[in-house]
Amino acid sequence: MDMHVFIGGAFAGTLEAAQDRYPEAPVIRPGESFPPENGAVIIHDFRQYLHQNGEKAFHHLLDRLPAERIVLVMEEMGNGVVPLEKELRKLRDANGRAAARAVRKADDADYVWYGLSRPMKRRRREA
Prior knowledge:
- By secondary structure, the chain is of the alpha/beta class.
- The chain has helices spanning 14-21, 46-53, 55-63, 86-105; strands at residues 2-8, 27-28, 40-44, 69-75, 108-113, 116-122.
- A hairpin with a 2-residue loop joins strand 5 and strand 6 (116-122).
- Helix 2 (46-53) packs across helix 3 (55-63) and helix 3 packs parallel to helix 4.
- InterPro entries: P-loop_NTPase (IPR027417).
């Protein structure tokens, strides 16, 4: 399995960048069924998945994703701002740890800022 992570702030254009790079890949959210074909799949909205299921469930999911090429669209949270509410702080911290693990495991990673995708990690050569 290959993995490509697109990460950026909310409404920074991360999903659009992933769709531009993988135009044929369906977009699913965690909890939805994977399509029967074994091509690329864009998985969006991991913040919600973390909020509902917790960090351990995210790591378990990351280890058993069933597609040939996984494209994760993740939100960078906080920008150094620490939320006042304890639960939001826990979510922000869990999101950061989950993103770090996903990027370590990924073959490719891009940071998206104002709709511009900047490669941050490349392990494989483009065909």
